[in-house]
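Worked example 2:
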Amino acid sequence: MDLEKFFKKSDLIPVICQDERNNEVLMLGYANKQALQNTMDTGTAWFFSRSRQKLWNKGETSGNYIFVSEILTDCDDDTLIYRGIPKGPTCHTGNRTCFYQAPIWKKD
């Protein structure tokens, strides 16, 4: 597969991680071409850290990997979803998902 089509607009694209068992959104990260290729090669979620300016494998230090079973793209080929099964909590705070906080806005 030619991965170039995903990186025409930017060297980094957003990646949403989703639990395939219940569709829960787990986290958002960014991938470059190498991170996407590593994900497809290993079956675990890889990203590019914007703060550390390096590739990282989710779970490499904590053991809380996300085992990716499929990758979806949006209609513009500039955002991806890694669908899979997390091993342990996804968030670095120890929460199952990074989206655990109360809503910042809610329509009445």
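The helical segments are 33-42. The two ends are 46 Å apart (CA to CA).
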